Amino acid sequence: MSELPKTYEPQLIEPRWYAEWMARGYFHADASAPKAPFAIVIPPPNVTGSLHMGHALGTTIEDIFTRWKRMAAYNAMWLPGTDHAGIATQMVVERELRETEGKSRHDLGREEFIKRIWAWRERTGDRILSQLKTMGHSLDWERLKFTMEPAYSAAVIEAFVRLYEEGLIYRARRLINWCVSCRTALSDLEVDYDEGVQGELYEFAYPLADGSGEVVVATTRPETMLGDTAVAVHPDDPRHRSKIGKIIKHPITGREFPIIADPVLVDPKFGTGAVKVTPAHDPNDFECGVRHGLPMISILDEMGVVNAEGGPFAGLDRWKARKAVKARLHELGLERGSKAHVHAVGHCQRCETVVEPMLSTQWFVKMEPLAQPAIEAVEQGKTRFVPESWSKTYFHWMRNIRDWCISRQLWWGHRIPVWYCARCREMTVARTTPTQCQHCGSGELTQDEDVLDTWFSSWLWPFATLGWPNETRELKTFYPTTVLDTGYDIIFFWVARMMMAGLHFMKKVPFRTVYLHTMVTDDKGEKMSKVKGNTIDPVDVIAKHGADPLRFALAWLTTHAAQGKNIKFSMGNVEDARRFANKIWNATRFALLNLEGFDADRFADRTADGPDRAEFDLPERWILSRVQRASEEIDKALEEYRISDAAQAVYHFIWDEICDWYIELAKAALLRADGNAEITANPEARWRIQGALVTALETAMRLLHPFMPFLSEEIWQQLPKPSGAPQSIMITLYPVRDVRFYDDASEASMALVQKVIVALRGIRADKNIHSATRVMALLSVNDDYKKTILEGYKTIIAEQGRCREVRVRRSGASLGGEFSLDHVATALAGDVEVMVPLEGLIDSGEEKVKLTRERAKLVSDRDYLARKLANPQFVEKAPAEVLERSRGKLAEVEIALAKIDEAIVRIGA
RNA sequence: GGGCGUUUAACUCAGCGGAAGAGUGCCACCUUCACACGGUGGAAGUCGAAGGUUCAAUCCCUUCAACGCCCACCA
After folding, report:
1. In A613-708, which ranges are continuous DSSP H helix?
2. Residue A663: which nucleotide is closest by CA–C1'?
3. How far: A554 CA to B23 C1' (Å)?
4. Which residue, A667, A712, A742, A880, shows the most beta carbons closer than 10 Å to its own?
5. Which nucleotides of B are covered by protein (CB under 7 A)?
């Protein structure tokens, strides 16, 4: 046996194993393997990205699932890849270009700029992939995909063309969200609303053209009055009814437009009851404009600067124009007031610029027909959300879905496969570049300049990565995928859209289960951000503490995600996990130092059908049974996606049961077996103790492996195993319960023994007895069964409780001469009385106070239970099991009470 | 304006119908031959408030309060 270093050093073990696993091809899943498939696709991180805690959390969860299912003999495949991330990537490369060469993308031109992006990706785009490797993730790298690679692009184009041909993609001039900084259209989802921005509700008067008066309107955006083409009032509003149909003369542009009646747009209770209508710059006004056939005048250009329609204000940006318009209205004497007004303002998700509603010709996907099957699939349980409550969020969005604007005025992305004919003006939509117009045969074709929204490629991810539109073996085996893990922040962006695309193109849901994890924040619940400087970089964490502690810390914290809650993460969590790793390391050191002469084959042989109960001593029977209980509990927790519960169960099994109890019991037993103790030596006991210890540790490592792959592998390799054992823990079987090792009787006996030991230690601590001091212990029990057990394990009790002698008697039986009744410390272990004679250390007054306090508690317990059991309603209606438990408890409490009374009497005073 | 969620030990969180659990922190003791990244023992909670249902409620129902999240075009 090689000797392990004294402390766990992740840096010494982690890098080795990843390379080894890769070399042996353990991460690769063969699509033809005759095993049940288990598939996960990674939520593709942006190529521009660097690993952050959000990635670390999600991918840790995914790797836990994958490693667990792989060990459970599934054909487990976790598909890696990256997303081209249109706007984000283009912005990063543009910034670099500006900083290094002082150029804009326009200086380079489209083709050259795209070349630069590819070069940039070549240079740095793999950073996140190597970071995922340092996490220990068992991704099937042979299947690595990128959303801009040719095969994937072909899938994107295919999807576009099919939807176009089916009438589900159309081009229209509509009011869309426009970012004046990114200079592109955005989908509704890409607009973030700042809730409760303190703004101003500004009122001004529009004079009537005939000079007969004015109408006062209220607005949060005075500058848009330059594009007004109507004023609307409610048809039933007595204040304004008479003005309907009258003409307004615009005080700045001189344009004339009508006062119209619109019960949809106007809420008579709000503002002045009259609404200025700017169809080209407000979604509601746009609808109103459509209803009334109003002219739609865009007053802003793509950079948010007032255009020629703005007359004297042309050339001012929208904020300056607002001030200028207000100043002008003031000069004209038309200002009518101003109120504070709280409202929501939309910002570009990427650059935080205030988004401008703009009239623009864009491409859209008609969503309702796609949403319907996606709603039904979840209703029918074909796809299940975990936690289930997220399905409500999903349904709500799906049932109120609106068309998706998919064209972007960017260069980096999938170019829209549409060509316009210079001669007949018709469109040709094609999978490959057409040579002539479908309609007139002309060769004068120009491709649409725009690219597709990044999410238009992402929504195909679960099947485009598996070869779609070709009918591949991969699709057959791994589609639908088993689980999708992702953060709840992209349910709409990604999950819902994948559901729609999967059902539409594949006719099957893309995944059976959607596991939604929560967001990671700092320990105060603040979102981590570089600006705030509160980020914890997983790369740094790994360098300092290793990937395993990071993974374990994240798993420990991963409880079911509730709305509005998040994971508060701190380095303390990682340090705790590292301490756990160190504990495991040292438990293994202990084992390895004590395995001399151990024959794993022999042990395996002798326990093939469970341990021989006559041959194996209590601690061994107990720990071998506990191994199986832990296996059952952990496997079940994972099956139910209770990741934190699974991690905590592994933790407690290893720390509490293996380390705190079994190793302590084994230490003493090995000493006995070696004949070093004063107790009879039993050399034959050695192999059973060694075997139980190794079994417990070896099983624990397999249970731990999905959480801490490196450490578990390293330890597992060190442990002796029967010949013919696999080469790596990765290809062993995940432990599931083996009931042949279950041993209720041993667990009950051990529980009793443990209680007595804890009571003894309690007395020692209470009386401040030094650990070197051996005491006498007298145990008083009420039944022969317990007496037999405690008699049988006196040695263990003595060793763990540091006693020089342990005596067990039936209650009331003779104490034996050397016990002095005046100087006995008493504690209860359930209904077993534990007494330690302590000449000179007992203050009988103090002792009495302590016992009396305990008695009061017992009396209250007894009364409560007795009252309950005296209640006929309870006896009649409570389930038998509950009744039984209450009766048992009452009996125990009564015995304990009797014992305490005896003790109080004994003390006298 | 709708919808959802949270409120349990000092902190962070599990539990969700049978008289409350974990990790950290705290207190006392221990340099016991795997580990001081440790051991042993302990203190600590009217389970947000008020009603109701039930033999029984932290857990179910109602109302309220505080906090948080999502959706929505109210000028």
Report:
1. 618-639, 643-652, 664-673, 685-704
2. B34
3. 13
4. A712
5. 3-6, 12-15, 18-19, 22-24, 28-30, 32, 34-42, 54-56, 67-75
For residue A218, pLDDT over 60 is answered with yes
Q: What is the number of other CB atoms lying within 10 angstroms of the CB of residue A515?
A: 24
Contacts of A640 (CB under 8 A, 6+ apart): none
Cα–Cα distance, A199 to A344 (Å, whole number): 9
Amino acid A131 CA to nucleotide B52 C1' distance, rounded Å: 56
Q: Is the sign of the CA dihedral A326, A330, A335, A337 positive or negative?
A: positive
In 3-state terms chain A splits into helix, strand, coil percentages (rounded to 5) of 50, 20, 35
Among A263, A259, A236, residue whose Cα is nearest residue A248: A259
Nearest nucleotide to A860 by CA–C1' distance?
B19
Of all nucleotides, the one whose C1′ comes closest to residue A402's CA is B72
What's the CA–C1' distance between A856 and B55, in Å? 26
Residue reference for tokens 């040292």:
A586
Residue A845 banded pLDDT, cuts 50, 70, 90:
confident
- For residues A654 and A700, the answer to whether their CB atoms sit within 8 Å is yes
d(CA A239, CA A306) in angstroms, rounded, equals 34
* pLDDT the model gives residue A169: 96
In the predicted structure, residue A718 carries a pLDDT above the cut 50: yes
φ/ψ of residue A806, rounded to 5: -125, 130
Q: Which of A96, A302, A309, A101 is nearest to A183 (CA)?
A: A302
State how far the Cα of A456 lies from the Cα of A414, in Å rounded to an integer.
Answer: 9
Handedness of CA A459, A463, A467, A471 (dihedral sign): negative
- Out of A78-82, A532-536, A640-644, which region has the weakest mean confidence (pLDDT)? A532-536
The interface pTM score, or ipTM, of the predicted complex is: 0.97
Cβ A436 vs Cβ A421: under 8 Å: no
Residue ranges with strand state E in A2-74? 37-41
* CA atom of A695 to C1′ atom of B29, Å: 34
Alpha-carbon gap, residue A500 to A455, rounded angstroms: 12
At a CB cut-off of 8 Å and minimum separation 6, what does A40 contact? A62, A65, A66, A77, A78, A79, A481, A482, A483, A484, A485
This prediction's pTM? 0.94
Give the CA A869 to C1' B56 distance in Å.
12
